[in-house]
Input
Amino acid sequence: MLLTCAAAGGVSAAPVRLTVASYPDLDQALKLALPAFARRHPGVEVNVVTLSHKDHHTAMTTALAAGAALPDLIALDMDFMGKFVDSAGLEDLSRPPYLARSQESRFPRYAWQAAVNRRGELKALPVDTGPGALFYRHDLLARAGLQEADLTRSWTGFVDAGRALKAKTGAYLVAHAQDLKDIRIRAGLADGEGVFFDRQGRTQVQTERFRRAFELALRARDGGIDAGVRAWSNEWSEGFRRGAIATQMMGCWLGGHLKRWIAPGTAGLWRSAPLPEGVAAAWGGSFYAIPVHSRQKALAWELLQLLALDRDQQVAAFRALDAFPVLLSAQEDGFLSEPIDFLGGQPARLQWRDAARRTPALAIDRYDPVADEVVRTELDLVLLRRKRIDQALADARATIERRVRRRA
Output
């Protein structure tokens, strides 16, 4: 018995383990923060579980529904916040011991509001953001005798420029006409308004805003300015590498993707511009949330504060990974004024900061993904089968309302 007790006394205590579930490339920003976290909490072992973007969010949806197999900290993408923001399985960070509401003024309105549900509960904190930009091939525009203003002044001018570009260079102006619809349906929205639903949850797809978006997409298709390829497909990437697609409207992080793996051979040929007609929109953005069933809530909160509230940490992730910082103070760093070689020396980060500060705080609805899928299907019918726009929007509204009733 004495030998057994002595042996037991010599065994060191098991390390405290903190599990974080994330996805590429957000997990790389997390790993950049781990040395600083280790200095504050020596002996704490951080286990990072990374799945693909889609698989991660599917796994977290299942785990939260079951209340089991949950990590201590969950990464969430802006595109999925409508689904997660109402989850009873996530901590309300506005309540003790977190009291994070006091940090609201440190963030852009739209990034903060995306984590707040209709009950006023704060379900996550943002750690980076994706202000929208129009990336374009400067060399192709020059060959066609076009200027940046021809793309940004108006949507009509944008389509006309696309026709001239195609005629003189053979390049398509955009990858897919759907991309134009995605921007146009966000034009003119103010704080508190939703893209697909109003404040009372009523569908907004049968409105003038969506009609104009569908008309714009159809003009682009009829004008022969879109390649008809979907984002992230092999054809999409190859179009950028070969100079067959001249522009892409997306989050500012696209510049980093173009540089690192999509089209590194095109360095110096790209530029960034504001979205046409001054539209301000965000593509994505990353958040972290703490599950109610986390076993290490205090440590999870410590790590979340490092990721979301530490200016130096966000600037470091920006420099290393092109993860645009969400903290307003981090957006004042001198790094934003530095020229970007891949964009021909353009200091485009200042433009992206302006876009981030103009982007309205739109209301996110849990059924936004449903509505987005239905609208995309109906626009495809307009583009491919010449379905009347009025009928497509009426059918979209009916389908959305039917699906929402089923899930309610």
